[in-house]
Amino acid sequence: MAAQPADVLLVGGGAIGLAAAYRLAERGARVQVVDASGGRGASWAAAGMLAPVTEAAFGEDELTRLNLAAVPVFQRLVAQLQERTGHSVGLRTEGTLAVAFNSDDRAALDRLTDFRTGLGLSTQRLSGAATRALEPYLAAGVRGGVLAADDLSVDNRRYLDVLRQAAQAAGVRFVAAEVTGLLRGGSRVSGVRTATGAELTAGAVVLCGGAATGTLADVPVHPVKGQILRLAVPERLRAAGPVLTRTVRGIVRGGEIYLVPRPGGEVVVGATSEQQGHDTGVTAGGVYELLRNAYELLPISSEFDFVEARAGSRPGTPDNGPILGRLADGLVLATGHYRNGILLSALTADAVVALVAGEPPAPVWAPFSPGRFSADPPRTAPAEPAAAGLIR
């Protein structure tokens, strides 16, 4: 029996797919989300850092501008979601504290801070004593730090649950299935085919399936494995006051470690970065590395309860930037968000709505079109509405 056609069909039910589905349904579209993981992919495994300042890296100025533009859009979406559902997403606004353990770490952090300050980002250098005054449980050997007060964090799992509730309330339908191919009518994409052979048709298809997108479209998206832990601060420690009040990042043995506190006493520890294809298995070595480095940064973490070890596949691209734009008639790409999927979810959702309606996304998206990776001059798909007349 043929499924009821949708105006817009989104492949992928993570932060990007859910936010776009919600925004499209708000505009009056009949929306269907097809996702085989049940929303338990990379977004579920993430730490929930919203870090436009401490994610700013050399040579990624355009990505930094995109991440900064995403912050107020994300905050507005969160406020709306919390009002409509009555549930908190655990948004924290205390900022990120980046710390250095030795003179080499401090020199590297100073270079990054000079670069970020040059971009107009707000940073505050701190001595070792001042750093430990902000977070008293940090290791005694911390030599200094930098406070990025404009960074945020969110409980990613609460955020996904609230997004899904809001999307369902707006009429979004969900299909638990693996998409194996695209349906085409002439030069236009008209739907998808699932692993069971079912064909789902729509006025527009949006590929937002993260690291798996490259199996459906010719785009350079690759998986970057990340193992991550969740620990819980025991009540006996919480009774004395918060162990962490903000996200803390440090360099330990040349690798980055970060600790992200949750309102309920959980602490997320992440994350490894591994080129292991689509493998998402948790390894003893990965868990050991994370626990060891967490102890080096925050010795009291050895007394935390172990809750969970998980791995996910971040969707990486050659330049670490997302890919957003039309790839063909009826086909929109919103993928490759790498380490910034949660942060960019609301901004991406607005861009997807614009693209489906045949409008250009905000100018800040211009450097991130699919054509930037092509050896040939970028071909722009016709700017006609992908779902004409279906979005108010």
Major sheet attributes: 8 strands, mixed
List the uncertain runs: 377-383
What are the secondary-structure elements, in order, as H or E?
EHEHEHEHEHEEHEEEEEHEEEHEEEH
Mean pLDDT: 92
Helix content: 25-40%
Computed structural class: alpha/beta
Global morphology? globular
C-alpha-based Rg, rounded: 21 Å
Number of helices: 9
Distance between the termini: 30 Å
What would you say this structure looks like, in words?
Helix 1 runs parallel beside helix 9 (341-356), helix 3 packs across helix 6 (156-169) and helix 3 (61-85) crosses helix 9 (341-356). Strands 1, 2, 8, 9, 10, 11, 17 and 18 form an eight-stranded mixed β-sheet that branches. This protein has an eight-stranded mixed β-sheet with strand order 5-6-4-13-14-15-12-16. Strands 3-7 form a two-stranded antiparallel sheet. Residues 377-383 have low confidence and may be disordered. The protein is built from nine helices and 18 strands. Strand 1 (6-11), helix 1 and strand 2 (31-34) form a beta-alpha-beta unit. Helix content is 29%, strand content 27%. The chain is of the alpha/beta class and 392 residues long.
Characteristic terms for this protein:
eight-stranded mixed sheet; 18 strands; 9 helices; 392 residues; single chain; alpha/beta; 29% helix
